[in-house]
Write a structure and sequence with these properties.
- The relative contact order is 0.15.
- The chain has nine helices and twelve strands.
- Helix content is 38%, strand content 21%.
- It has one domain: NAD(P)-binding Rossmann-like Domain (Rossmann fold).
- It is globular and about 40 Å long.
- The chain has helices at residues 10-21, 36-45, 52-57, 71-78, 107-114, 130-133, 151-164, 177-180, 183-194; strands at 2-6, 25-29, 48-50, 61-64, 85-88, 93-94, 98-99, 119-123, 136-137, 140-141, 143-148, 167-170.
- The strands form three sheets. The chain has an eight-stranded mixed β-sheet, with helices on both faces. Strands 6-7 form a two-stranded antiparallel sheet.
- The longest helix has 14 residues, at 151-164.
Length: 206
């Protein structure tokens, strides 16, 4: 699968690394695709780097792994994303650790309104980057939730969650992002209380 990872910070690099190791074709979309650190990572992974528009144009899946404040510029640079699976990994958080959206909508739903032709999913927003490197705790894979409205896209995102090493849990339609997005706040709170970033969520089943 051809995947554009927009952003090469901790989350973007972690996702790109995992997906490249799983055999996907990964292109990092960046404002500086020739940067030394990114170039070295691409060489290590067998990935490539390109300007945001070029990376997105050639991809089936676009993962938005940038700070929420950078999203407007990224969407403008990316161009038309119609027909593509777009995974929103961002966290729309305002001062005081408050969600920008909540209750009647979510950041992912607002993103879908801006990208009416795309298949928007929410995932990879509620864990530290460390869990992208090693999501298994004592032999048990941590849970990663995803949600979205497109049936075919749902199977794609489930596979990509599992390719990182998570237990993939389908949380339903995109409106479920209203519940998935606040998990980031819970993860941060738990991490601080426990004094470690090596924490993850697990949904148990009988």
């Amino acid at each position: 699968m051809k995947i554009a990872v927009i952003g090469n910070g901790h989350i973007g690099a972690g996702l790109g690394r995992a997906w490249a190791k799983a055999g996907h074709g990964v292109t990092f979309g960046s404002r500086d695709p020739g940067g030394e650190e990114l170039r070295a990572m691409c060489q290590e992974l067998g990935a490539s780097a390109a300007p945001v528009a070029e990376a997105a144009r050639g991809a089936e899946v676009v993962a938005l792994a940038v700070p929420y404040g950078a999203l407007d510029g990224v969407l403008q640079a990316a161009g038309d994303l119609a027909g593509k699976v777009v995974i929103d990994c961002t966290n729309a958080v305002e001062a005081g650790m408050r969600l920008k959206y909540g209750g009647a909508t979510s950041a992912a739903e607002e993103l879908q309104k801006r990208l009416p032709g795309a298949k928007v999913f929410k995932s990879f927003n509620a864990q530290g980057a460390e869990n992208l490197t090693d999501p298994v705790y004592g032999g048990v894979p941590a849970t990663n939730f995803f949600c979205g409205d497109d049936a075919a896209g749902r199977a794609v995102v489930k596979r990509l969650v599992e390719d990182v090493g998570f237990d993939a849990v389908d949380a339903g339609p995109l409106s479920s992002a209203r519940y998935v997005e606040p998990l980031m706040l819970l993860w941060v709170t738990a991490s601080r209380a426990l004094g470690t970033r090596d924490v993850a969520f697990k949904l148990l089943r009988r």
